[in-house]
Amino acid sequence: MSKTRTALVTGSSSGIGLATAGVLAQRGYQIMLHGLEDAELGGLIARKLADEHGVRTDYCQADLSGTRQVERLYRSCVEQFGAVDILVNNAGIQFTAATAEFPPEKWDLILAVNLSAAFHASRLALPAMQRAGWGRIINIASVHGLVASANKSAYCAAKHGLVGLTKVMALEHAADGITANAICPGWTDTPLLNQQFENYAKEHGVSFDEAKLGLIHTKTPYPSLIAPQAIGELAAYLCSDAAAGITGAALPIDGAWTAH
Ligand SMILES: NC(=O)c1ccc[n+]([C@@H]2O[C@H](COP(=O)([O-])OP(=O)(O)OC[C@H]3O[C@@H](n4cnc5c(N)ncnc54)[C@H](O)[C@@H]3O)[C@@H](O)[C@H]2O)c1
């Protein structure tokens, strides 16, 4: 790398985003962290990453359910670091209910955070990537961008949409040195799943840990949760020169969930 590249990782105060930010920092990229947490807590996370890996980091709080906040986050990264070379659209939320009972406000929020925010951040980042002749857009989708599960209408719609958006951007920018890919994780060890584990434990009268294994086996033969770090490693590979020809892909990392 001739210049130090900057990665903006949305939703990097926790889970997959935080692990991805850590792997990218380890590879020497400057990192703009983001989350809902206040500046004090976010600043602590950013400083820890900077101390561990000797790279510049910063943190920006923004609620990405609103377009203006996505724009503020993008501007803040450009002001701090001069560019967004790598954009990891990771921020996401989940809510489960049957379609007929799905609260309309939850539908709107999930679509806004999991899909529209990725569109807005990407449309802002692409022109400068195009001028630079290099860029990486990595959308953290889900197996639910490839297959469906009952009670996840909004999540599945958003994640299928995110995979579609990824493919369109890949086609539009394949000749510009910009790649756009989706990573499609299965059950991954983050706080996002806790509510689902708690529900399963209650329904089946089992402990939280038993619920984990029980729920995993409803979808995949792989007997463990995926480590968030593993998603980060795949993202880092997609940033490498070796991955320049991988674009428009939706890559499962799912313990054979989608092999059925
Ligand atoms: N955990 C899994 O099993 C799994 C599987 C497939 C895909 N994913 C996807 O991975 C991504 C990260 O999820 P995670 O499991 O690490 O969850 P997490 O709950 O640990 O992290 C979610 C992140 O999103 C941010 N966020 C939530 N609401 C936001 C909002 N309104 N505005 C801005 N940021 C907001 C949070 O601050 C946090 O940083 C999500 O897009 C999720 O759909 C997770």
TrEMBL record:
Signal peptide (residue range): none
Recall the GO molecular function terms of this protein's record: 3-hydroxybutyrate dehydrogenase activity
- Check the record and name the SUPFAM superfamilies matching this protein: NAD(P)-binding Rossmann-fold domains (SSF51735)
The residues forming a coiled coil are none
Q: Name one GO biological process term.
A: monocarboxylic acid metabolic process
Task: Name the InterPro entries for this protein.
Answer: 3-OHbutyrate_DH, NAD(P)-bd_dom_sf, Sc_DH/Rdtase_CS, SDR, SDR_fam
Q: Which family does it belong to?
A: Belongs to the short-chain dehydrogenases/reductases (SDR) family.
NCBIfam families the record matches? PHB_DH (TIGR01963), PRK12429.1 (NF009093)
Q: What is this protein called?
A: 3-hydroxybutyrate dehydrogenase
Q: Which organism is it from?
A: Marinobacterium nitratireducens
